[in-house]
Known about the structure:
0% helix, six-stranded mixed β-sheet, 44% strand, 2 domains, Immunoglobulin-like, three-stranded antiparallel β-sheet, mainly beta
Amino acid sequence: MTGLVPGTSYHVRAFVVTSSAGTQRVDYGSEVNFTTLGINLTASAPTPNTATANSAQTFTTTITNNGGVSTGVGFNNFFQVASAAGGGGTIVDKAPTAMAILAAGGTNTATVSHTFATDGTYSLRACADKSSALNTGVITETNEGDNCSGWTDVIVATSNAIPTVTTPTSTSLTTSGATLGANVTSLGIPAAITARGTCWGTTPSPITNCLSE
C-alpha cells in the first residue's frame, strides 16, 4: 500500500470470496492493526531567562523531531513574547524563521532577538512548525497540540552601574588628625552597597586605613 497518512493507525484483514450453486459468499480472516511512522515536532523552553533593558538579547530554543520519519520538507518556527510572567498580559508574535528538513530524531536550534524597553518580569516561548499563533503549520504530525514550549519567565533589569561618590573632604586639620568626609551620590544598579567610608594613607590611591561609617 502507498499513500498512507503518517502516524495513523490502520486495521487490516484478509478476505476470500466463494461461489456455490449460484450463491456468492465473502469470508474474512482475523484483523490486525498497525500504525505508520509519524512526525512529532516540539520546542524546548527558550533560554536565557535574563535580559538587560534597551539591549538586544538573543533567545534560543531546540526544535526536536520526536517521530520516526523525516519531516520531508522545511518548516517555520516562531517565538512569542508576553508582557507578564507565565504568558500573561499582552502576547506578541515575533517574525517566523525557516528551518530545513529535520531527520527522524533530529534536532536543530532556532533563535530570536528581542529588546525589552523597560525592566520587569516578562515571559517567552517557542513554537515549532508554526509561523503565528493561528497558523497550523505544514507538517502533518501525530500530535499537533505540543508544538509550543512552556513559558520561560525573563527577568529584565536596567544596565549595571557602579556606585559614585563625591571627592573626599578634609577639615579640622591638626598636627595629628583630620576630619574626612564624602557623599555617596549614586548607589549603583543594582543597589548592593554593604559599607561606605574613606581610606587614607601617605601615598596616592590609598586602599588601606579604610574607615567605615
